[in-house]
Amino acid sequence: MAIVKHIKSRNANYSAAINYLLFEHDEKTGKKIVDESGRSILRKEFYMDGLNCDPMSFDKECELTNAHFHKNKKREDIKSHHYIISYDPADVTENGLTGERAQAISLELAKQMFPGYQALVVTHTDGHNESGNIHTHIVINSVRKTAVERQPYMDKPHEEVAGYKHRSTDKFMNTFKKTVMDRCLQEGLHQIDLLAPAERKITQKEYMAQKHGQQTIDEINRKIIEDGLKPTSTVFLTQKEYLRQAIDECAVTSSNFDEFQSKLLELFQISVIEHRGRYSYLHPDRQKRISERALGTRYGKEHLEQTFLRKDPLAILYVRSHLCLVVNLQTNVKAMQSPAYAHRVKLSNLQQMANTIIYVQEHGFDTQSDLKNTLLASKQELKEMQTQFAQHRSNLRTLNDQIRYTGQYYANKEIYSQFSNAKYKGKYRKEHAKEIQKYEEARDWLRSFYQDGKMTSLKTLTLQKEKLQQQIASEEEAISSLKEKLKDLDTADQNVDAILQMQIPEPVKSKTKDLER
């Protein structure tokens, strides 16, 4: 299956991306590998293209774009985004995937998802730790070089305009993953549902922490063994992995939450509580809890409650899981190629049909029209909420400007007053250039904003900001909740369509025609 990863970088040295993609690097240290003469060694096999730039001058062209639009000047600015599409190793032997073919597929995906951006598209065939899986790196400058048509996944104002920065939002990532899934299925490559929540959610940050931690413990153990002693631990566990293993062990022997909670605390010193319908865990070496979302769906309330219920053979009849789409076996390439896979999909489809029927009954949908009307109404409600949310965010930015320029105005007002009364204004301006410039900048902005000349006090502005921030936080939570509801509604709607299509009877053959035969 192809998977998609995203990494954002604040490194202003765009040459570092070119060096990493073209030359061999030590995976443990991250340093470039050189030959006896100290020269960099090219990777054994790679394919490279540039999008809206020459790949070999990607770094210079990005710097020119940034300078042209006066962007990425601050250290904390995100300078580039790095997306990695990793293909299933089995695609090489089973589906004839080559580095050249993967590069062509990934380049088309990059053109579709990153129009107007300067990008490096480089495919490697060695895989991580020489695993052999083909993967493509797409590195884009965070600033859009040329304007493009607005796309459905763009939910930020002016995202399509040249000079605006890329935002890797949830909406964008979901669209990107869906596009990758569709393309892999079209190409006959192995693919899983990237939009379904991961059972074990391991981020790039956790993966790297585990990797470096294992290297450290291996080095320590090597010295212990050399001294003739036996290491007490050979495997490094991140705090999240420690939680996962402990939860797995306690869940299978617990019949309810109270028992599960007691065992975690007694055996592993892990505290678990339920908050707002979700579980959160406290590692013994932490002060802040880790939510079930950070660990994966396998460690969430819904899945674990199902595990507890399964101890009772009667209760299993009432177990529900996340709604997932019913798979169409007539269009699924892998199902057509593998009878065993098709059989598993059929079983999964039966479960999802049952879950869909339970969902429809629980929410009181008497007809298919009721379901579709609720779905359409929810989509419209979400659109209106997002429009209002975007407006409030825009108002907050304006309010922040008011506060900043008002504070800047009053902070430098006294110096500017002294400058106005100074005998030698040129000398005074030279000595206080920074303060005078800030005052004039603030004064001009405030004059253009307050057309009637009446300024709002800092105290009032601060109160307005607090109120607006609370409103934005409330709207953000409401939008998140509505999105989850919409996802279930949309899945149920598609599944109902699929179920009804499966139940359409074949035309009954005429008895007269049968007799004639």
What would the principal axes of the Cα set say about the shape? globular
Category by helix and strand content: alpha+beta
Low-confidence runs of at least 5 consecutive residues: 312-321, 504-517
- Give the CA-CA distance, first to last residue: 50 Å
Q: Roughly what fraction of the amino acids lie in strands?
A: 5-15%
In CATH terms, what is the fold-level topology of the largest domain? BirA Bifunctional Protein, domain 2
Overall domain count: 3
Strand order of the largest sheet: 1-3-5-4-2
- Just give the CATH class of the largest domain: Alpha Beta
- Rg, please? 29 Å
Instruction: Characterize the largest beta sheet: strand count, sense, and whether it forms a barrel.
Output: 5 strands, antiparallel
CATH architecture of the largest domain: 2-Layer Sandwich
Instruction: Write the H/E string, N to C.
Output: EHEHEHHEEHHHHEEEHHHHHHHHHH
Helix content: 40-55%
Per DSSP E runs of 2 or more residues, the count of β-strands stands at: 8
The average pLDDT is: 84
Count of alpha and pi helical runs: 18
